[in-house]
Amino acid sequence: FPVPSESPEEKNIKIVQDYLEKFYQLPKYRHPSERKKSASVIVEKLKEMQRFFGLNVTGKQDEETLKTMQKPRCGVPDSGN
Amino acid sequence: FMLTPGHPKWKHTNLTYRIINQTTNLTNDVVERYIEEAFQLWKNASSLNITRVLQGEADIKIAFFQRDHGDNSPFDGPNGILAHAFQPGPGIGGDVHFDAEEMWTNTSKDYNLYLVAAHEFGHSLGLSHSTDPGALMYPTYSFHEPSTYVLPQDDINGIQAIYGPADRPVQPTGPTTPTACDPRLTFDAVTTLRGEILFFKDKYFWRKHPQVRRVELNFISLFWPTLPDGIQAAYEDFYRDVVIVFKGKQYWALSGYDIQQGYPKDILNYGFPSSVHAIDAAASYRGKTYFFVNNQFWRYDDQRQSMDPGYPKSIASTFQGIGSRVDAVFQRDDVFFFFSGPIHYAFDFRYQRITKVERNNRWLNC
User: Looking at CA atoms only, how far is residue B232 from chain A in angstroms?
Assistant: First the structure.
């Protein structure tokens, strides 16, 4: 069977997760079960990123946040070492 | 600005750098010149002395790598992450890595090596990312013309917080990013653009979209790399679907992100006398374009493409209540919004009178 293509929603979740792991010290969760527990951590990290970029601090992966996450940038994290 | 956690810094101020390898996109001498000039930005603002060595150990080693290159921070191919650097320290400390798979350029095309190098060297010297969108140490890439680039004040403050003032009689200063809610905020030029409103200020513009609450601050150079900073007037020509922007005696036609061919042109083309050296403000209304210069204004007929007879007239004679000189103006729904100092006046053309007076930054949700 053809590999089910990623839904836009899943794609966006991946963009957000990847970005927060790289630049905001979001722990890498291996198992989906861990990911459910981590929802509140992701929201907090998302708010931290939105505050840094002066976006509306919604904790949600809104269009502006996703647009910012896809801009070319430096690989050094925005917070922490 | 932000200092790297733990405030790492170089204990010695005579630093060395070495270019380990080169990119295939640019000739070696361009890379070497760009890297030297990027370090010069930081040297000018501090007491640091940074010189190149051609072999052996160096504090700051510069290299182009791709994908996984052994430092636990793999690159991701074209776009995305462009480069990274390590905080001051021995070994890999201070080193700068560029993603070899990026298209490195010495033009406004993505990505100009000079700007990325200057940013990464900030990390090599102990700076983290700044939340100031106008700062060099802001995390996302924006093009600026390297030949006219000046280190922003935020970055000067940052490097001097680590290494102290520059050892010279006059401390360097740089541009500061305008803050939307500064009650004294003035605009250089304002225009509509396909339903949005653009507020120009220095090297920036705020972009206000009718459906989006947050007003976005951008560099002019991010959208129109070859346009100069300090635009003085702008108006939207609705029929041609272009925005005309003015600086001094020159003007450009913007079609979305593109600058039309054959610009800049001279404002003499509009029929101004040679005594007019710059336009303060401009707005288009019902086939006529109004140009404001000092305390007078001209009216230009868009169809006939010439100035209407009997102009210039005094602004006060036609727009009662509007002071002698305006900074900017735009027209929407029969209302001319005149910006003068930190205040703007809504002049309703149908009733020939001012209907509202407010602070400029009301437009920026303040």
Answer: 27
Contact B131 A52 (CB under 8 A): yes
pLDDT of residue A57 exceeding 60: yes
Q: What is the pLDDT of residue A30?
A: 67
Angle, alpha carbons B231-B237-B239 (nearest 5°) = 165
Nearest residue to B40 via CA among B57, B48, B113, B167: B48
- Closest to B331 (Cα-Cα) out of B201, B213, B256, B236: B236
Structure tokens at B347: 């002049």
**Any alpha helices (H) in B282-351, and if so which ranges?**
315-318
- Confidence bin at A34 (pLDDT 50/70/90): low
pLDDT surpassing 80 at residue A58:
yes
- The region that residue B262 occupies, defined by phi over 0 for left and psi between -120 and 50 for alpha, beta otherwise, is left
Q: Which pLDDT does position A28 carry in this prediction?
A: 83
- Do A56 and B214 count as a contact with CB atoms less than 8 A apart? yes
- Backbone angles phi and psi of B301, in degrees to 5: -90, 115
- pLDDT-wise least confident of A6-15, B62-71, B325-334, B341-350: A6-15
DSSP state of B178: -
The pLDDT of residue A37 is 61
Cα B366 from Cα B356, distance rounded (Å): 17
Q: Is residue B269 classed exposed, middle or buried when 0-12, 13-18 and 19+ CB atoms within 10 A define those classes?
A: exposed
Q: Which of B79, B80, B129 sits opposite A78 (nearest CB)?
A: B129
Which two tokens mark A20? 């927060």
Provide the shortest C-alpha distance from residue A76 to chain B (in Å). 5
Whether B214 and A64 lie within 8 Å, measured CB to CB: yes
Q: Which of left, alpha, beta for B58 (phi over 0: left; psi -120 to 50: alpha)?
A: beta
E strand residue ranges, A1-81:
73-74
A28 touching B (Cβ < 8 Å): no
Q: What integer pLDDT is reported at residue B155 of this predicted model? A: 98
Question: Helices then strands (H, E): number in chain B?
Answer: 5, 23
Interval B89-122: pLDDT, tens: 999 999 999 999 999 999 999 899 999 999 999 9
